[in-house]
Amino acid sequence: MSEKTLPRVAVTMGYAAGIGPELVVKTVAKPTMRLECRPIVVGDSRILKEIAGTCGVTIEWNKIEKPEEARFKPGLVDLVDLQNTPINEFEWGKVVPSLGKASGEYLEVAWKAALDGKVDGIVSGVIHKEALNEGGYAFRDELEFFSKITGSPRPFLVGVTDSLWTTPVTVHIPFREIHEKITREDVLFHIEAIDQSMKRYGFTKPRIAVAALNVHGGEGGLFGDEETEAIGPAIQEARRLGIDAHGPYPADTIFVRAQKGGFDSVVGMYHDQVNIGRKLIGGMRGATLFMGLPVPCGTTAHGTALGKAGKGVADPSSMEATLKIVSRLASSKDGDSH
Description:
Elements: E1 8-12, H1 20-28, E2 38-43, H2 45-55, E3 61-64, E4 77-81, H3 97-115, E5 121-123, H4 129-134, H5 142-150, E6 156-161, E7 164-168, H6 178-181, H7 184-201, E8 208-211, H8 226-240, E9 245-249, H9 251-259, E10 265-268, H10 271-282, E11 287-291, E12 297-300, H11 317-331
Parallel strand pairs: 1-2, 1-5, 2-4, 3-4, 5-12, 7-10, 8-9, 8-10
Antiparallel strand pairs: 6-7, 6-11, 11-12
């Protein structure tokens, strides 16, 4: 793929007082990343310059006002420089609503560019949900935010750790409400969604394991009927559609089987069910993807790590993996909407 055909990926700075700016600087400064995509950073040059100095990273910015002004010149990194950080309130590692507001503004710029056809993918710097919310963006998480801003009715979450892909049927809801959301339709949607996403990435026929909700897989209804009434029938319908789906498997064994190479992906019933397993396997490696949107979008597999912020010690490997995965998905000719 020539440089001119590489996907254009907007990389937002994330929450300014977290490790997001450091990860962005360390990632886009690597020449190897320019083999994956044509990056356009959206952030604040003052914060990026400071953390680059702390890290000892040499980077030359081409400051622009809009993503479409990017030049993609060798030796330069294009930066939409919003300069919206309230410096008088800024302090590394602190939760400040105005900084949360600034992080939301970076994402608004990136998504507008995506909707206008100016970028082909987005990598979101690590945001702080509490600060984002207190800064005026009243959303529980990125999925809700991105759904609203793009008009996408049903985005979904995908975790990628090495070669293992995961997706939860439910995400950020109270635990007591999970069982109400486990319907045949929702389980089937997520099986189909991860199958299509993985095929877009390059898998020929992903082997998909589907987790049970209840202990011991429900024991035929003894410990709950979600497996017999919703999960099992969804798997059967997926197989009828030609998807290589299996289960439901008890949650305490499903990742053991996946880790041994039995499956390429796991569809879990709730957030922690999949995240505990994938993070035990891969630690903080990999990426979190937001799919079912106008363009592929991703962020790191970890949070803002406020205790490490501003010290130059953050590991950029998850950000690098995210940029690579989003770039590859953005290069696909298939549409992203499920």
